[in-house]
């Protein structure tokens, strides 16, 4: 099968998200200029550079009470900071609860019963029991082609790792089993890993 996205795929559901999988989930916490807090998951998320460490996530829809975007991007525009919380399998239901198109006054930490903790280098909260959290300073917001498509880039200014996830000096993802996003309504969990040496490595 071949299709041009501009002409449609002819399938019951768009296959694009099912093709680009699995995708890590960035659970983005922000604080508005008025002090209100927001927590929302984004599966268009990844690390993009080592030195300095940088990440990005993309928001692809808008809410009526936020104009051309959603709460996360609106808050980051106002404050210039955010935090990426890594989602473990055990927190899948809380993450899903926070994904709704809630009113901007809604605090998803409270809504989903998620314990919060203060960040160290930026002015917002983080998910207290997340396996890891990346505190970020905004570097740029890029408007992408298409309505309400914004890519947010940030430099990581602080890193939290849960102590039980560090084994023999390594951050061990099998201690918490990362949740990943697939297509449609589907998710996957990582329960197995293997290693490969690049050519020339020993």
From TrEMBL:
**Transmembrane region positions?**
none
Which residue range or ranges hold the Flavin reductase like domain?
Answer: 18-173
User: Cross-referenced Gene3D superfamilies, in alphabetical order?
Assistant: Electron Transport, Fmn-binding Protein, Chain A
InterPro entries named among the record's database cross-references = Flavin_Rdtase-like_dom, Split_barrel_FMN-bd
Q: Source organism's superkingdom?
A: Bacteria
A single Gene Ontology MF term assigned here is: oxidoreductase activity, acting on the CH-NH group of donors, NAD or NADP as acceptor
Q: Which residues form a coiled coil?
A: none
Q: Return the PANTHER family for the record.
A: BLR2425 PROTEIN, FLAVIN REDUCTASE LIKE DOMAIN-CONTAINING PROTEIN
Provide the protein name.
Answer: NADH-FMN oxidoreductase RutF, flavin reductase (DIM6/NTAB) family
